[in-house]
Amino acid sequence: MASPPTNHKPNLELFILIGGLYPRRVMIYLHEKGLLPPIPPPTISTSTSPTAPIPTTLPVPVQNPHFNLKITPCTQKGLTMIAPGKPPGSLPILSLGNGTFIKQSLAIIHYLEELCLSTPSKGKSMLGESAEERARTMEVLGLADEATSLFGLACHKGSAMFVLLEETDAKAGRLALEGCEKVLGVLERDYYGQDGRFVKERSEDGEDEVEVTIADVVLFTLLQFAEVMYKKDLTQGLEGLKRFYEGFGRRGSARVSEDMYPEDIRKIASHWLPETKSWFGSLKEGGKLVWLYLGVCGGLLRGLMGWGK
Length: 309
Hints:
By secondary structure, the chain is an alpha+beta fold. It is built from eight helices and seven strands, in the order E-H-E-E-E-E-E-E-H-H-H-H-H-H-H. The longest helix has 28 residues, at 131-158.
């Protein structure tokens, strides 16, 4: 098959779930690559998660020298994500405009990076300029992705978020979380423990003058999602990763809206199931879960009836 002409700009459409762990990887990458408009400065901040309004004009067309991109947020209906033109599958999904799709976040990022590097105005590679730099990025990327998968398993098995959706197992959740922490320990020991990139002086435009890699994006996305959604500080006892997380968290790409992760949902997500074998312990935990879910349903009802703020 012949390659498209170099002046051809593909028309792409990115289907996302705002705030979703894997879609957020792609969104942070796009911001770091300079392919999205700057996010407005925050009005309220925490140490690592400044907040700013999410654009209200989505779906938005994104014009850049490399491709035309429309970002389309999906809505949830039951367990299904829906949007006009979205094919079956979990998010994110990138439509290539020719009837084919890319359905994995890392594959999407690599595809977009290849498009950027294939044009005259390619800019710096977020994989690395030399063979050694690219290999190092792929090393860290593999570990960060492994830690993300283990944390996801821990959430599905050990968080109250999924008790109504699938079979949970507190012990399996704990073991998966321990596996995630072990991988993060390797990242601390071999890569980020002595990494001083994110403690440099900030430039006049407020951004740290740091060459961010795709691996950095994937790792930060995990650490932020774990803290904000599940209230798990995965950097505890890992000073290099904490320094990285706090430094990256000051960047514009890391900003999130106040309502990206609703508090009622966070209360359920951050309730981790205890390991208990007694009938009394199980009964007690069941009561807590019922109370949590009733609280969320009550909040939704108050909003629908106009009783909320």
